[in-house]
Task: structure prediction
Amino acid sequence: MTFECFDVVVVGGGHAGAEASAAAARLGCKTMLVTQSIDTICQMSCNPAMGGVAKGQIVREIDALGGWSGIVTDRATLQFRMLNRSKGPAMWSPRAQCDKWLFSQTWQQVLTSLPNLSIWQDEVIDIKVVSGKVEGVATAMGHVIPCNAVVLTAGTFLRGRIFVGETTWQGGRIGEPSAQMLSQHLKDLGFEVERLKTGTPVRVDGRTIDFSKLVEQAGDDVPGRFSFVDGPTLNKQMSCFIANTNLRTHDILRTGFSKSPMFTGRIQGRGPRYCPSIEDKIDRFADKDHHQLFVEPEGRNSQSWYLNGFSSSLPIEVQLEALHSIVGFEKARIFKPGYAIEYDYFPPTQLRYTLETKNVEGLFFAGQVNGTTGYEEAACQGLVAGVNAALKLQGKSPFILDRSQAYIGVLIDDLITKGVDEPYRMFTSRAEYRILLRQDNADQRLTPLAYEMGMVDVERLARVEKKQKLSVELCTLIETASVAPSEVNPWLQEHSSALLSQRVRLSSLLLRPELSLDDILQLSDAATAMINNVAEPLRSEVCTDVETGIKYRRYIEKEQEVAQRILKFEDIKLPESFDYFSLTALSYEAREKLCRMMPRTIGQASRISGVSPADISVLLVHFAR
Result:
């Protein structure tokens, strides 16, 4: 069989690969997705959920940029919750429990409906490179697929090895083979290759769980959604539940430590710090008498339940005995055990901001091969890599987000500037501009950029413009209307709010933490009439935008000022190849790291560990001259 030449070949059908394929095809590139199994495209191989703290912001950013993760999630949602409602809006994070089978099936339907996208079931074993440039991929079936760009999104499959107690075998996921040859070929091309580890818990038969002994965790009364476009209404939510380990559970787990691949040294790669295995938790936090577990459904028509927080690579008999010691799981049966998996990744300092590799032109890396963990982190990288592969082939300017524009910009800057020595997970604390990068304003931040690239249509842009226009109108009504003490003091007393002594604008009342925009609307017939003419969900989005804008205006303005000052450094470009050792005024560590990292701007150089403010001053003087 002879393949025609494709513009872009995407290797791997996980969350990064799906978004990369869809983005390249959307931008008009003839795209081929090569995956080991079409049936497992976008499989939720670990937690059957999307979003969460900071991750939810990423999914909304993907949606605002024309990606599909938010739309697919909305179609597969079992339960929706907005996390951190008790905190400020910068911390609000949407999360959806998903039907994992429906999620994968929906993604397959999306990808097979895209006009410019072909799918081929095979394993890529080599990247064909001539004179430092991609020319195609070779597959296990003996085919060569010519192409002009490759996006590698192989997840945990590169020399993946699974561990359950003292038993170990090759695999990318349980029941699926690993890719044994590709990472070695990339190493031969000069890429640095290292190992990381992750894991997953047992899947429990829900018919054997006593849910009456667990604490129910229901979804929001009015469930939201991820996508800014209209989607299905979630009418019937499924509950999650909370369980706890106990001292007996911990004692049972300790009996398996002598056979644990983590503690015996058979696993060399580091695991995720913020999602450790249960054995790691009881070892590191020996003073804790219990650890919380989240019992989560995997599908609406399935009896499989995910025991979040019980990830383990201990022997099966130890996992099962420990499970039976947990209240509510005394008679539990499991469908499959927890396991650990160790796999190859490529330290992301080998990448450019576009996620193109520095070593090979036209080769992009995205997802867990860059050392990240999580579906959301992988998906956003896939989107950026797919977009930039297409833009490069079309001779257009690259798509690069800075840290003040998106969590995606923070993630990519962290990866290529700081590198990783453990699986990278996004948190709100990693972003300097959290109040600017809220989940509710992702469309206003990013959809105009997506429209310029051709990733969204004019209808999407028009919706954002309408939202902005309505927000301005409502904000103006709130800021210009005023009330006298005689008009409002009885009402304020009912709301346990301080009484007025003089006339004030409604916007001043909204600054009070005990009052919300819904409260303030009761005092303005004009504002109420205006917003009541707006249909949901746009009405809620406009109200959130206005309330946040007024209540947090000073914080928003301060972050904008800081971002503008720092962006000056981002505008000062550095040469792609420069001998920093020639600048003897730099510290030796700075010279060494700058030569290795080759930062794109002064701003990126300032974030490299070991490059001091004094070193930045030297660079400013030299390159300004």
